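Colleagues,

Please find the record for the four-part complex below.
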Amino acid sequence: MSEQTSLIEAIEHLPEALQNAVRGLSDKQLDTPVGEGKWTIRQIAHHIADANINAYTRMKLVATEQKPILKPYNQDQWAILEDGKNGPIEPTLTFVKGLHERWIVFLRSLPETSWAREGIHLENGKVTLFDILRLYSNHGNSHLQQIITFRQKMKW
Amino acid sequence: MSEQTSLIEAIEHLPEALQNAVRGLSDKQLDTPVGEGKWTIRQIAHHIADANINAYTRMKLVATEQKPILKPYNQDQWAILEDGKNGPIEPTLTFVKGLHERWIVFLRSLPETSWAREGIHLENGKVTLFDILRLYSNHGNSHLQQIITFRQKMKW
Amino acid sequence: MSEQTSLIEAIEHLPEALQNAVRGLSDKQLDTPVGEGKWTIRQIAHHIADANINAYTRMKLVATEQKPILKPYNQDQWAILEDGKNGPIEPTLTFVKGLHERWIVFLRSLPETSWAREGIHLENGKVTLFDILRLYSNHGNSHLQQIITFRQKMKW
Amino acid sequence: MSEQTSLIEAIEHLPEALQNAVRGLSDKQLDTPVGEGKWTIRQIAHHIADANINAYTRMKLVATEQKPILKPYNQDQWAILEDGKNGPIEPTLTFVKGLHERWIVFLRSLPETSWAREGIHLENGKVTLFDILRLYSNHGNSHLQQIITFRQKMKW
């Protein structure tokens, strides 16, 4: 399996894996930081959704424009907005499910040549569509693992 | 009821209204353009979702940064990407549902002073958070009405 | 005389007026702030040049592209860079002379329709070519007047 | 001599070298393209000035801001604007003389750490202050050489 296929599969599986990772957690557990000075499980779940909204948007911009500007977002500020900090987790699970279903239809339809298309990220500079795929596929998994590891540690 | 309250309510009600508007339509009906040279019902449904992802992202950028750049997107190009043109409609209904639930938590938590915050849209220039709210609340309703009107005309 | 003609004439006359305004001043006089917490005469002279380089560049971007991004610059930071703070004044008088000579050739060649062309300034939003002309023609004169008034006050 | 010192010296010497390169040319000679489908000597001289205005501005943006946007300019469009195509050459020689005198004061005052500072060029992505120095110092010399070589070929 190519790296590309594998990265897209990870995006395909993330919504279900995220649902499993937070299943049965109480509000109090969701609001527990996974480490000192770290986000809570709730914030991490919302952050995965916000990151992937940005990833989805950037990929479509790169697929449809010549070297579009890709706007960074301030993840720490987003994580303390009301919905990102205290909002219920179900809408985010619902949203991620639908978003990823659409996203993989898009990703699997891209011609091979599209992966080298470039955007200009205002913090990181030039990035290809493939760079964005790799970054966010791994990013989602990494945060997912953060939740799973913490649950195991807490024996929840 | 203030304009602001009313615009947020429209965002709250859109996901259910959109589900009702497309309920029971066959694939063939979904793939019918609503007028000559116009998008199909399917494309309009996907477009509402794409527009609102952009709206949600822009609002959060404006809420968390000083005069952020707000990147336009090429709606006509997005509407002919595979997922926007031929993708199944259920994922989009799912993700609109979740997105709007999060979005209204965010919108209702904003302090009154936030509505005057500004971003720099690369096509339209300076826009306030309130401008974006008004634009996209009305935009969603307008496309929703387009579907409803067309269904009535077709007696579907 | 139309406002436009008058604004372009002010740009035409500025280099000579600036030379007259600083003629015969010693280095000590040039390094005197024109008010408490204000720039020195030297800094103001260099600032006029820097502002007009930016104005010239923005106007050409607007004349040759569709809604180009117009990048603000941090005038207070530029004014404390070595050449803007302590640099000799002759090179600036020389380059303002040459810059304005080219600039007015450009300005007087623009078809009437060009003045409504727009750029997106990342701080001020949408601006027309005419807006930039008015802003910088007046800006140069205003700083020139600042020097003249201060010299009169100091009886230099 | 370090590459940096050598690149700054090339910027220091360019104005005089450019004056020598175009000295004594008639308007007709100035308006001769240096090759088929190429710019005229006049356009090349004006282009050197325009490129260096952009270089100077970009360097100051990078020196005074965190990862500023660096706006490309459309050099082919600028070269057919009235002042860039048909304008007299003296203002440009004057302007380049003054600009470079200020520019080298700025360049020689930069602390060693500044050369690694970065900007985000909307076409090329991330570039350092040193990248810009190298690019434009060589760029000026390369166009200068273009004029000299053509004059020799034409035995002017």
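The mean pLDDT of chain B is 97.

Comments are welcome before we finalize the supplementary table.
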